[in-house]
């Protein structure tokens, strides 16, 4: 891709030398569409492309596609002025700039920005609210020179308002659509980031996960998602569900792009105590050094049969993953199969494990704290959010799907005996299950189909990376392969995911884009 882009850039130099006028979005399409961060940075260095032109291209794509796909909930009116600043800084700079400098990024609409953009979790209840400051990850992005191009849609309140709403739906954003097939699953809750970056409405995106909210939409929209170790990235300024499980991570078209974003957003934030402890996992020199083509050599990968049970009846999926296992072996990995995780049925059932009970109480506490910290807001507590939805039920289908999870959370009263028992059970399940599996078999990573391992990773705060793994031949939907590991194992997971991606190069541009 880099060679192709270099040739395209040299061609543009020739065109410019003959006095052509400002490049139009149509002429830029061949160079910007599907371009990686490294491709764009190369064009910036060759002075064949500006950040303003990149932003204009993406704004044009949003106008063209978003009415149907609903991946973007709001565009930043200051995106072009940010691009102009980036272009000016690049002209005047005589040293290497950060990888994301001048690169547009969309943020999931639960990540706070202290600017003209709203932060609403897709809800009208927070429309017009004013946050006290940028989220911790946004501050890091701004310091890197990234352009905040807007907010991406999501499953309203990160899928923690109601049991009945479809994935990718919110009152503000409407129903998100899969750009590969509008009739199939888009998944959530970070649906908008996955839709938008898959459809080339932005360069890179940022999502959040509590249990599956990065892993699942990345898988079903054929993009790469990194769910970092909890605490590796700051959650300060992010509308919460569970501080014990919440994490912020990139959703991009390639592993390399995701790693470039991760390198920028990790690190200590005084507004999130968990980042101090997790910062010990950050490698000297960053994560980019682990983008190795031979990253699978010598890696021990575990296969738990139950995580592939859902595809055993599907000949195409079963054969596809058998081919992937062959590829992993050819690239030097050792596959340890026929493994079992103790009490996995309980782990995968949020009610049996206690995960749901714990999150209900954690959500009420954390949300009330977030709302109470707002400078201005139509609502200041979970109770007021519930009342807002009831009072506005006839407006924009605000209460179309109810709010049963909200109501259950409101009935909780702190972390009582029931919740403490749930937390103890989650720790036991994680220690005796995933941790024991990984240590007993000296595994570097667990391999799973799509989001089948999301709860295993969620309850222990463990990281995972999803990479495109194929497109169903008859049902016409994308699916991914997930590599998960113990806390702080991002370097190994990046090596594995990147080597698999480079060996297979499965992802293709969606037809609806």
Provide a concise account of the structure shown:
The protein is 41% helix and 13% strand. The protein contains 20 helices and 13 strands.
Explain what the structure shows:
With 513 residues, the protein is an alpha/beta fold. Among the domains are: 35 residues, no CATH class; 67 residues, no CATH class. The protein is built from 20 helices and 13 strands. The longest helix is centred in the last third of the chain and has 24 residues. One of its GO terms (molecular function) is mandelamide amidase activity. InterPro entries: Amidase_dom, AS_sf.
Computed over alpha carbons, the radius of gyration is 22 Å
Multimerization state: single chain
Low-pLDDT runs of 5+ residues are 1-25
Structural class based on helices, strands and sheet pairing: alpha/beta
Cα end-to-end separation: 20 Å
Q: Share of helix among residues?
A: 40-55%
Fraction in beta strands: 5-15%
Major sheet details: 11 strands, mixed
Largest sheet strand order: 1-3-2-6-8-7-12-13-11-9-10
Q: How many beta-strand runs?
A: 13
Q: Estimate the global geometry from the Cα principal axes.
A: globular
Could you report the average pLDDT, rounded to the nearest whole number? 94
SS element count, helices:
20
């Amino acid at each position: 891709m880099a060679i192709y882009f270099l040739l395209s850039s040299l061609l543009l130099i020739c065109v410019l030398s003959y006095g052509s006028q400002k490049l139009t979005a149509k002429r830029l399409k061949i160079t910007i569409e599907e371009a990686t961060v490294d491709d764009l940075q190369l064009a910036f260095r060759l002075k064949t492309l500006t950040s303003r032109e990149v932003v204009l291209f993406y704004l044009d794509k949003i106008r063209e596609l978003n009415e149907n796909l609903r991946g973007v909930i709001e565009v930043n009116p200051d995106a072009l002025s940010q691009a102009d600043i980036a272009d000016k800084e690049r002209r005047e700079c005589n040293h290497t700039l950060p990888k994301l400098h001048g690169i547009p990024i969309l943020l999931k609409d639960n990540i706070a920005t202290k600017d003209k953009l709203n932060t609403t979790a897709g809800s009208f209840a927070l429309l017009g609210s004013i946050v006290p400051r940028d989220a911790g990850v946004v501050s890091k992005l701004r310091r890197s020179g990234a352009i905040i191009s807007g907010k991406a849609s999501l499953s309203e309140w990160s899928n923690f308002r109601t049991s009945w709403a479809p994935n990718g739906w919110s009152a503000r954003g409407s129903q998100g659509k899969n750009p590969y097939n509008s009739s199939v699953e888009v998944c959530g809750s970070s649906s908008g980031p996955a839709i938008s970056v898959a459809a080339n409405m932005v360069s890179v995106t940022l999502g959040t996960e509590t249990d599956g909210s990065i892993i699942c939409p990345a898988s079903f929209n054929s993009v790469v998602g990194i769910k970092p170790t909890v605490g590796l990235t700051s959650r300060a300024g992010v509308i919460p569900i569970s501080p014990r499980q919440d994490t912020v991570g990139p959703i991009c078209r390639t592993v390399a792009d995701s790693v470039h974003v991760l390198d920028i957003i990790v690190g200590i934030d005084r507004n999130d105590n968990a980042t101090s402890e997790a910062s010990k996992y950050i490698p000297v020199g960053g994560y980019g050094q682990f983008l190795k083509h031979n990253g699978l050599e010598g890696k021990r990968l575990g296969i738990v049969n139950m995580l592939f049970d859902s595809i055993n009846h599907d000949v195409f999926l079963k054969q596809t993953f058998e081919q992937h296992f062959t590829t992993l072996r050819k690239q030097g990995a050792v596959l340890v199969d026929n493994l079992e995780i103790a009490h996995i049925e309980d782990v995968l059932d949020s009610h049996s494990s206690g995960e749901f009970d714990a999150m209900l109480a954690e959500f009420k506490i954390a949300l009330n704290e977030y709302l109470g910290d707002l400078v201005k807001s139509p609502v200041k507590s979970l109770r007021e959010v519930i009342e807002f939805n009831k009072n506005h039920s006839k407006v924009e289908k605000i209460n179309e799907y109810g709010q049963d999870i909200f109501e259950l959370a409101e009935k909780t009263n702190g972390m009582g005996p029931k919740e403490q028992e749930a937390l103890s059970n989650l720790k036991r399940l994680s220690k005796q299950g995933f941790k024991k599996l990984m240590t007993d078999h000296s595994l570097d990573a667990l391999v799973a189909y799509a989001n089948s391992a999301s709860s295993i990773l969620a309850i222990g705060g463990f990281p995972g990376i999803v990479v495109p793994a194929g497109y169903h031949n008859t049902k016409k939907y994308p699916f991914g392969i997930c590599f998960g590991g113990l806390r702080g194992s991002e370097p190994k997971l990046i090596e594995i995911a990147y080597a698999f991606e480079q060996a297979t190069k499965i992802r293709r541009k969606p037809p609806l884009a």
